[in-house]
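hey so i finally got around to running the thing on that chain from the lab meeting. sorry it took forever, my laptop kept dying and i had to restart like 3 times. anyway pasting the input first so we r on the same page abt which one it is
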Amino acid sequence: MTKSNKWTKASSPPSTPSPIPNPPSVADPQRMLRRPLLIASLGNPPPLYKNTLHSAGHTLLSSLQQYLSYPPFAKSRPHGNGLSSSGNDITLWQSPTLMNVSGPAVATAWKTFLRDLPNEDRTRAKLVVVHDELESPLGKIKLKVGGSARGHNGLKSCVSSLGGMAFSRIGVGIGRPESRESRDVANYVLKKMSVVEVQKVIKGVEETAELIVELMLLFTAPDIEAQDKHLQRPLRPKIDAGLRDRPSGGFGDSQSFGVFN
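ok and heres what got predicted. didnt touch it at all, straight out
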């Protein structure tokens, strides 16, 4: 296996999209395969709902597109009219619908994603849904595989439309209002984030990228089941030291990630 290039900062993109870095050494590197990923963010459609708390998943995914130096998002009719950006083994996709009815579009995008893969890759492919997480501290990133939607209507819609298929979830915390009244909660999640709040959300892009590296690892049977069990708990993956050695000091102002454009 040849060594992949290091990631570079979005402010200095390489001539070609930089690949996800390889994981640290494994017992038998020849057994490792990449797991194709469709990473789908949920939220409400822009421009009215851009950078609202309920659309924090879209904000994070937009930052990830810049971080990976992937092509700009473009509308894709075959992918349920969502915005799509592809590179290497990963397709980033933003749902075009209102949060509560995200499921049908996600299911369409997933079906198209699988159809476009080589036959041998389809059983290894995984769906990852990026969404806002009420009650979790603003900007906190958490990975979960399967489990309950815990009252999140966007996730409920996905579970229903995907026929109960297990998928991974990356939640980005949006805090919580003091009141638990349904009207107050609705007003809270639909409010626009401040510049500082947006920056807290996009600060999670590097940790999100680390989780993606973890999700891309795939070993041939019988190791698949063991790996999926490993991913059943929140984790901070141990990955290539080169990624951790990225220069400190944050990612510049929010404009560099296009989140206010």
